[in-house]
Write a structure and sequence with these properties.
single chain, mainly alpha, Ferredoxin Thioredoxin Reductase, 4 helices, about 40% helix, binds iron/sulfur cluster
Length: about 110
């Protein structure tokens, strides 16, 4: 069965969550498609659209902080990079996501 309908639902929902936070989907459409596909598979396997780029601890309270979009839980770090960890979302003013730096949270 195609994952496209669920990917479209997530796209619709996520956009409404991240826009008020000052973020948008990256202009890299191929990356958006790949990450949404991965999230739909994680949701099918594990019950939630967990982040495809961050490891789960197995501790539910911690893992809920990496259910997409996880921006509210990592705001300072992501704002410093102008992107989320995976690069699925970038600040509203970003036009060239490849130019953005990526660094671990302890280097904020
Ligand atoms: S890092 Fe990005 S893609 Fe991963 S869960 Fe957070 S917002 Fe979603």
């Amino acid at each position: 069965m195609s994952n496209e309908p669920r990917k479209e639902s997530l796209r619709y929902l996520f956009e409404r969550v991240v826009t008020p936070l000052g973020y948008k989907f990256t202009p890299d459409a191929e990356l958006v498609d790949e990450l949404l596909e991965a999230e739909v598979k994680l949701e099918q396997d594990l019950g939630a659209p967990y982040c495809p780029c961050q490891g789960r601890s197995g501790v539910r309270e911690e893992d809920m902080k990496i259910v997409c979009p996880c921006i509210p839980f990592h705001r300072a770090h992501f704002d410093a990079m102008k992107r989320c960890w995976c690069g699925l979302f970038v600040h509203l003013d970003v036009t060239d996501p490849d130019s953005l730096p990526q660094f671990p949270p302890d280097e904020d």
